[in-house]
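Problem: given the chain below (433 residues), write out its structure.
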Amino acid sequence: MGAKTDLDRFLGILEAHPKGVSHSEIHDWWPGGGKNRPRMEWVRGTAKNLATQGLIRITSVPSKRGRPATIYQLQSYASVIETQTPGEEIRFENKLFENVEAYLETGRTYRQLKNKFGDGVDSYLHPGAWSNSKTLFKDINKQGEHSFILLPTPQNWVSPIEARDWQYHIPVVNGKMQPYQIIQMPEDVFRMDGRYGQCFGVVPLFDVHYGSNGHRENKFQKYLKWIAKTPGLYIILGGDLMDNALDDGRGMSYDQYIPPQSQLDDMTEMLAPLAHRVLTMFPGNHEWRTYKKTGIDISKILADRLNIPYHTGPVLLNILAGEHKYRIYAQHGFTRPGTKGGQLNSAMKPMKWIDADFFLSGHTHEALVSEDTVLRENAQDGNLAFVPRWTVITQSFMGWLDTYGYRAGYGPVAGGGILLEMFENGERVPSTR
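Solution.
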């Protein structure tokens, strides 16, 4: 803030003396003091100007010398006068606002407010004067006086959901949603640099197990920050986001440090800033525990809160971007063979009935990739095309020591992670990070 103007000094004196200051006392309180006729005339003219706009009140009272004394009393900072710059107007208005806000943290009568701030306080004694974070309550005390108090407004703890830059459709046949989703990506979706040129990425977030003692919080938070700061990344939420151990033997309830309701609430809050990037979502066996016991689908509750497309099981995604389409068959997975080869064989089973570029699953807490080739007709030239397709078992966000996996005799879980990259030229490959 620059050097104080005379207007700053004048209003500062009035603010420091809410009951009023006489014309002669202004000079006693003025920095430097002393009588100064030009300043006396400036104060008189400025005071009249402020009074006509409701900023101050000018009254006359008898003095000891028998002559009336002129009293200046501050009312409001809200108006603009010729000698004020816009910056000064905002500064003074904010000052009064802050003072009234702090004063109303404790219940105050109208009389107390009027005595302290003058007529200018009236503009703050209605609900519309305050932001959505504060609510003004008006009551009547035991003496029959109106009293006011400003209290925090209960806030929705879910951050506002940003608008998607992509569109989707889920077909419904005979009243039932199909396990199929068409996704139209925006024209500028290829925003990342990759090995085959410009691309976009799909990040699988499976097996987070939030709430478990084994949850790797640092890894999960790094992923969320990486996605947030990287344009062109989208998400598939693939189940077991919450550990959700129940007290009926479904899971190790003493291995979780956060109860299931708090897991759901916390996960909602963590994912809200990225909800517009989530292409689809389905549950894992840990969330399904609640459904089997109560018929309540906590994954659907999470999806509804965040406005995310939701399926109760595996889904085929047909992603349209540029001149190409990219197909992902995604499922959580519900078996855990003892060998990595067995895990891949289990993840490949949908190849018998689905044609896709990626067969994506989780559940085993491994990070595995397998490539094979399928022959497809090239409709453009009538020849056969040798097309790679990928089986991907995605990473978890779970540790190993002192977890149920360790006690069951499973080996340490994989580190790192996997990203599905879709290139503008039609190439599509998984990559590790």
